[in-house]
Amino acid sequence: MRHIIALLIENEAGALSRVSGLFSARAYNIESLTVAPTEDPSLSRMTLITRGSDNIVEQILKQLNKLVDVVKVMDLSEGIHIERELLLLKIRVTNANACHDIKRLCDIFRGHIIDVNKDSYVVEMTGSSDKVDAFISTLDPHLILETVRSGVSGIGRGQRIL
Amino acid sequence: MVGETEMLTGADILIRCLEAEDVEFIFGYPGGAVLHIYDALFSHKNIRHILVRHEQAAVHAADGLARSTGKPGVVLVTSGPGATNAVTGIATAYMDSIPMVIITGQVPTALIGNDAFQEVDAVGITRPCVKHNFLVKDVTKLAETLKKAFFVATSGRPGPVVVDIPKDITAQTAAFSYPEQISMRSYKPNNVGHTGQIKRAAELLINAKRPMIYSGGGVVLGDASDDLTALTRELGFPITNTLMGLGAYPASDKQYVGMLGMHGTYEANMAMHECDTLLAIGARFDDRVTGEVKKFCPHAKIIHIDIDPASISKTIKVDVPIVGNVNRVINDLRNAIKVNKNQVDAKALEKWWQQINNWQEKNCLQYDRESELIKPQYVVEKLHEITKGDAFVTSDVGQHQMWAAQFYGFNKPRRWINSGGLGTMGFGLPAAMGVSLAHPEDTVACITGEASIQMCIQELSTCMQYGLPIKIINLNNRYMGMVRQWQEFFYDKRYSHSYVDALPDFVKLAESYGHVGMRIENPDDVKGALEEAFAMKDRLVFLDFMTDQSENVFPMVAAGKGHHEMLLSSMGTTDRELA
Ligand SMILES: Cc1ncc(C[n+]2csc(CCOP(=O)(O)OP(=O)(O)O)c2C)c(N)n1
């Protein structure tokens, strides 16, 4: 099962490697990891995507909690939550038709063209990972010059606050 | 002078922090990055620095002190090779949850990351084998960081904490004040067990027909031995201890059925297999204890008390988890049992004890007492007799360790000091140094093998310098016995590189360091030699016992087997076949 785990951690040098080191040392699966400081600059917020049986995920949560720098851990996938990923895509534009196609797809997927060059566009889009996947799959792979995905960030809905 | 402020160098701040923590001994080895600290130690009187001969030994010695006293061990090593040499010791302490603070020197802040002389990323290297670690980048944070280090090392599930201090930090000055209290928002160990769960546990125990108590190192670390003994006596249940938990319940008591696990007793392992209710206390269901997980305690409802939530249901799913300080939870459980309207089922218990007594009749720890060769088990039995079962016994890793565990019969906690988790050969002698320094009036023995002892043999020099009257019991079988045993059983007697060749003359070796050496070749001389050695109260004596090379450790639960599938007796190898 895929789980999305949110955690608050002391914003100190090496905090990230404590988390990533835990995953590699214990052979836990990690699909993506995002991290940035919060409104309180002494704390960082991480979102982690992992896969595993219930037993393994239970261990992951316990082991994360056990890290001395970790302040709070929550399995967002246990309740209602929102997930978003940011995509930056550099696309080759060959002719006016291609331009038009990209603009149309951007409208449908609610993306934006944020950089225009003679031969390429950069498109920005946010959404669930599924939506990002879907957008990428509608494009001709030969036209994609660079794919940059942020990895998932997540937040609980309503009263679910970490 | 806690609370007062004065300007001090980082090196002096460090020493003052250690003083504030009542540190009596610091085990270390100097080098460039810690010279300011050593300079501060030079004129210092309250803390005794013990100079070892290898940094690994410094950590093991501090570890031995910690295990035997319950106080945190403190180590000081230099950057680079000093830190890497310490890693084995740190990992050893980590696996057995031993409270320690290890100070590693680091190259000056401005040079970090430059591949400077004797630079290693000590925080990076030790991260997976410490409870926590710190790099101090600001001298004004040094005292607070050390306070945190001691707090983290000694609270919750204890463990080693590394504090990496760059050289320039030890020379800079700052106002010193040592915080009396520290609170960390990210670290709040839970000590009190859940009342509802404790009630459920009491209910299960009272209704048990075939109960079993399995207790581990957590009971020793949590100083809950008396509480465990009281609980066990009140219930009248059989109890087994893990390798790490020996002594937490007196081995001479009639409710004690011996150690469990890979080399546990027949009765302990069979009782584990057949029990219907298992009370696990401060134990972590280690693979050497459980045997094949699928066959573990197939009939039992399991209650697990532990300070570390991550230990619960890690390998074995338990029915009633109770997270908390063992000592507190045991007493809450005793109360919950007392106030329960029902009582333990005495009839069922009597039947269960009959069954256990039948298993005990197998006499699974028997060995050939008529042999012309010295049997290692006999040496340990005599050691017990001569030290009245009251010595501190350290060990290395191998067959001798198992015989020590099986035959010494520990009646008190913190007397049995061994590397159970990491299984570090070389642990025994340096650990004995720490024990001996902390308990100068007590008898300290190190049971070892001729392969293990050579891993930290240089410490004989440290023992001389500080006059540590350790008795080294070398069970010399000219083999890495435990390796040989596995090769005999599972590799068709292909004894690949397990013969220990070109051994030194241990008697002369001991003498060259200024100690007493004895070589014992006859079973008849074992007792006399031990008596003679232990009579030399202020000397280190190296007793080199030439033991039966073919002896194996039994019983044994082999890989993939359950507790009920033990090997009970020798597979018939003779001494000649091996030579
Ligand atoms: C540092 C280290 N290296 C290797 C091992 C693997 N090992 C476990 S027991 C053993 C043999 C120990 O031989 P000895 O000290 O003579 O004890 P004996 O088994 O003969 O009693 C070895 C090599 C280990 N535990 N530790």
Radius of gyration of chain A: 19 Å
Q: Average pLDDT value of chain A?
A: 95
Measure the end-to-end span of chain B.
65 Å
Number of helices of chain A: 4
Helicity of chain B, as a percent range: 25-40%
Task: Label the CATH architecture of the largest domain in chain B.
Answer: 3-Layer(aba) Sandwich
Uncertain stretches of chain B: 571-579
- Terminal Cα span of chain A: 22 Å
**Rg measurement of chain B, Å:** 25 Å
So what's the oligomer here?
A: heterodimer
**Total beta strand runs of chain B:** 20
Question: What's the number of structural domains of chain A?
Answer: 2
Instruction: Examine the coordinates and then state which fold CATH places here, giving the name of the CATH topology of the largest domain in chain A.
Output: Alpha-Beta Plaits
Features:
heterodimer; A: 162 residues; alpha+beta; Alpha-Beta Plaits; five-stranded antiparallel sheet; 9 strands; 30% helix; B: 579 residues; Rossmann fold; 3 domains; six-stranded parallel sheet; 20 strands; 16% strand; binds thiamine diphosphate
Description:
The complex is a heterodimer of chains A (162) and B (579). Chain A has 4 helices and 9 strands. With 162 residues, chain A is α+β, with helices and mostly antiparallel strands. Chain A folds into 2 domains: 2-78, Alpha-Beta Plaits (2-Layer Sandwich), CATH 3.30.70.260; 82-155, Alpha-Beta Plaits, CATH 3.30.70. Chain B has 579 residues and is α/β, with parallel strands linked by helices. Chain B folds into 3 domains: 2-178, Rossmann fold, CATH 3.40.50; 195-360, TPP-binding domain (Rossmann fold); 376-553, Rossmann fold (3-Layer(aba) Sandwich). Chain B is built from 22 helices and 20 strands. In chain B, strands 3-2-4-5-7-6 form a 6-stranded parallel β-sheet, sandwiched between helices. In chain B, strands 11-10-9-12-13-14 form a 6-stranded parallel β-sheet, sandwiched between helices. In chain B, α8 packs across α13 and α11 (266-274) packs antiparallel against α14. Residues 571-579 of chain B have low confidence and may be disordered. Thiamine diphosphate binds at residues 396-400, 423-426, 449-452, 475, 477, 479-483 of chain B.
